[in-house]
Task: inverse folding
DNA sequence: CGCAATTCGTTGATTACTCAACAAATCAAT
DNA sequence: ATTGATTTGTTGAGTAATCAACGAATTGCG
């Protein structure tokens, strides 16, 4: 992998951060490219150097978070649910502004559905209906059940200002998850 | 004044911030140009684009703060001491990392003497020994007295983690100042 | 509707930054 | 004192970002 120019990284980070901030302040529709450029302290043209428009920018941001989560889902296959859930919760907390605006604000429903879809695929890998407590169960039902539960809990946690620390959340959620899958 | 390129501002800000941070962590002598570049997330060569070496960089930083203070000393001539001192204290607080490392750390004595010299000049403008309570006083004595007192109090305030808010400090110090000059 | 004002997306010329490489200077340690 | 390793300051080629300017598209308001 050829390492990318420092300037590219910095510009993109500033631009992405700017959009998230602005989305936490006003509606996505009301945000102009100039707004983003001002907030990122970047020339307006620079945004077009990396993104087609603000929709493309938002897509890339969402895609990146999904990818990040996907990556440490892989590297966490040998951990138990609680430990790997701690990592997830801390990731949510570390990107609080993104996830809270994305899940809490109305209108950003697209990300929620992406997020849910991603979790459905992840849980599919873990469910085994050939033996154990889930013999005679239905895979789709379990997966939908558990993914929706998980996303809903995360949503609630973020909407309510993260009332419990990541580890506490992970222990509770991890315990519940282990009862199902 | 032709407005400067955004990139210049950003690079210089990052570099200056990097040095201040590093100085609060280790001795100035132990800081390399590469350290600064790494912290500022800037290529090493970029530093030489703006500064001769780390000494020049530190000089420019100190000079800039002195200039800033000088500027809002001018614009505050019609305010009373308390109001203008509020501005000063808030400036100190806003640049806490700089002033605390510069005044608190041993070895950075050069800035203290510059800071004192600057204040001596400023107070000279305010002292009037031709009439009022300071008739029959000595200008040098008053100025030295008041400037050293002021610098010492600021030093103490910063060294002790700003135990009182800027306005409270300003009221106390402003009151004392008005008794003298 | 019609007009004014933004915003958009693109262009080209210029500039600052990046990166790798270099020799010289400085440092550390035996 | 001699070696080996960092650090320094500089170079040149390449690249990304800046800025001003443009017509076209959208928006907002009387």
Result:
């Amino acid at each position: 992998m050829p390492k990318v120019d420092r300037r590219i990284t910095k510009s993109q980070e500033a631009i992405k951060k700017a959009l998230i901030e602005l989305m936490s302040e006003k509606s996505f529709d009301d945000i102009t490219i100039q707004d983003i450029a001002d907030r990122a302290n970047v020339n307006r043209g620079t945004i077009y150097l990396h993104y087609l428009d603000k929709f493309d920018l938002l897509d890339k941001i969402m895609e990146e978070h999904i990818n990040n989560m996907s990556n440490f889902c892989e590297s966490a296959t040998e951990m138990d649910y609680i430990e790997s859930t701690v990592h997830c919760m801390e990731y949510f907390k570390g990107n609080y502004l993104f996830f809270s605006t994305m899940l809490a604000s109305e209108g950003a429903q697209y990300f929620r559905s992406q997020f849910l879809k991603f979790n459905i695929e992840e849980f599919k890998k873990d469910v085994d209906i050939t033996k154990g407590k889930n013999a005679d169960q239905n895979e789709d039902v379990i997966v939908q059940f558990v993914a929706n539960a998980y996303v809903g809990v995360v949503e609630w946690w973020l909407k309510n200002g993260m009332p419990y620390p990541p580890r506490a959340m992970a222990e509770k959620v991890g315990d519940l998850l282990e009862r199902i899958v």
Observations:
- Residues 1-51 of chain B form a domain with the Arc Repressor Mutant, subunit A fold (CATH 1.10.10.60).
- Residues 5, 7-8, 11, 42-46, 49 of chain B lie near DNA strand C (CB under 10 Å from a C1').
